[in-house]
Amino acid sequence: MPEDLAAxxxxxxxxxxxxxNALPEHTVELLRVSLGQAxxxxxxxxxxxxxxxxxxALQTAQNASEDR
Length: 68
Description:
Blueprint: H1 5-18, H2 25-43, H3 47-67
């Protein structure tokens, strides 16, 4: 089975959103919106866009957790 980087990146973002209770609420909301956008891009067949959105959101989550 070929690797699906878009799906893997979205799953990583889903995990962060589910475990984001230590992040500020505005950051969690941003992550949720990004997750929805990444899922929509993936569903539309725009894998690279989905990867970009999810990866940027993951970076935002990492930066927010480092700032705490």
